[in-house]
């Protein structure tokens, strides 16, 4: 508890966060009961951040509990202190938003902060903090499941449920603490991850929730075909060294990577790599053991200064120093990516007696591996990729030159081996996020005034089985224990392998008759009749333009995905890309389709049966909007998945709207940052929807996520040399919705920011 007291400040609590109101349309997603009718909840220790009554910031340890849509906060664990009453309690509504703010140093400790606010009223906001990035992600999932519970009740109860939700007290972390007459009960089966409050800081404390039985972590394969071809050329201490031979004759720098399997969770490995404490780093890192934090930004970016020992890394006797930046983020599949660039900083000019060394650009990727059924031993695969001068690399590979083995690139390649051995020698690191099932003795009294309103829910939520939540509540949610019981199938990723089996692979073309009205007469869509501010390219050599790629470069869910997780190549998109606008704006603009000069408002646009408008709002100085217009030649069929998406609730849309990115050409570090994994946009960033007349507009606020902001900032630095493909899909979750199809696709070719047209509002 010593770490707890060091973070506490005196004074009464005052914060600025509310949960959302219960308003929202009924729609997609179901409630859920656990296995055998049992109830599961989320619970765990977090830090509540705020400002006390005298204006001082505080960071207080609190026990948080989420059951269904209800949330309560306690000073102590209610399971260990029966009868304790919550200090705060309320409802998590459908409009609540959770944003990851990254790592923040608070009272000499590093914590991962979540900002929680109501998207309809951003003055209602507050913050909680967690010990690790993985824990923060699990709390985000817990809040998301609570939102889905509220949405499910609206869809099942109609107006009466909406009125009741509006009347219930919102969760409120600001001002005085309201009196709470009841405390949470009915905790039948709780799953806790972590060891308790004394282990929270820099440990995984946390969340318990039921295993997501429909979740599939697909391994190293992405959802777009990449152009790398990796060949194993060496092994060092059990770690494989690979070379990208796809472009080995170009004379450019060579991409190499070291790959090893580590017996620990991805969260643990990420924490070890990010930790710059000298004594720990000396045990595994021969290169960057002496590090000093110079600066940090936005919770996902920092700048470090280090010193090289010439005895180990140079045949010269002069001392060397270096500066590099790190940028990190966690994907929706739990994979961590860390980008490392050489850097300069005004606080660390050149030093007398030192030579400034430039560290090779490199990336870390840390991905959880599925384990056999019945095994609780965590494993993850760790890769470090870097760029090496081709002449030096080929000389070492040919002659096994000892000089290379005293170089910085070699030391970087050996970091994976050092990390693997260090964690292997410290068994406590392997199981620090172990899951524990807790059987509670707390009596069964309902949290929502005794009404067992959720007991009959049997449907599944999106990406989770919801608790069979009688309306009782306690503090803290438990996190997903992420032990998916399915045997995962190894998929092929590299182009060379993909070409070998190309003839055996199926493609998934959309069934037009399934999604669009069969009896309607198709309208001939001529793209030359529509003119956006960004012109359509003539061929692949054209620049600052767009084209319409087919779906062969994307991997999407096949007909038997629910049985064997198989994916197939995408076919031609269902909707036709008719125009693209590239706007420069003073501030992000929503409802762009209602602008009088928009294509949608033109006479020919109004005659189209259906238009999908994707407004990608790019945060920068100035702000930009990349607007994509997709059209259907027939009306949308009312019983189709597309109709459910177009006319459904925002919750359903957020749970289904999927984007697959692919950097076709561009700097390799940008490719690693963007990745090729599908992303549920509504879970990653704030999306707003406008359904009117013959169109649906989706306003995607990329700036609403600090992670997305940092990635798009990197992309903008190289945008004039990048060719990027984007595919838009509606994620299929039911057997009747499979196979998936690509709704729309676009290729943006070497975009110039200065060509953006200013949009007058």
UniProtKB/TrEMBL annotation:
InterPro entries: EDR2-like (IPR045096), EDR2_C (IPR009769), START-like_dom_sf (IPR023393), START_lipid-bd_dom (IPR002913). Signal peptide: none annotated. GO terms for molecular function: lipid binding. Residues 230-389 form the START domain. Residues 21-33 have a biased composition (Gly residues). Residues 1-33, 467-487 are annotated as: Disordered. Gene3D superfamilies: 3.30.530.20. PANTHER family: ENHANCED DISEASE RESISTANCE PROTEIN (DUF1336), ENHANCED DISEASE RESISTANCE-RELATED. This is Protein ENHANCED DISEASE RESISTANCE 2-like isoform X1. It comes from Juglans regia.
